[in-house]
Amino acid sequence: MILIRFLIISICSLYIIRSLVRIFLPMLFQNVVNKAQEQARQQQNYYQQQQQPRPDGKIRIDHMPEQRKSSVPDSEGEFVDYEEIK
């Protein structure tokens, strides 16, 4: 008797859960897809604002790397003496 009652309750609860998942899972996925689309749209707008048309022949430098000074003076460069062998 207890086994039959357990089976009936478990089958009914699984049926209810399955029905709820069929209803709410598509809503959840639609919400996630909408958020991803909105995020992609915002990112695309941001990149389009960054890309401004430049006049021909103009150069724009955004970043200049630091000039490193070597510890060896130019007069004491890395020159290696060699003799040409024929």
Automatic annotation (TrEMBL):
Keywords: Membrane, Transmembrane, Transmembrane helix. It comes from the Bacteria. The chain crosses the membrane at residues 6-25. It holds the Pfam family DUF4834. InterPro entries: DUF4834 (IPR032272). Residues 75-86 have a biased composition (Acidic residues). Residues 43-86 are annotated as: Disordered. This is DUF4834 family protein. The lineage of its organism: Bacteria, Pseudomonadati, Bacteroidota, Sphingobacteriia, Sphingobacteriales.
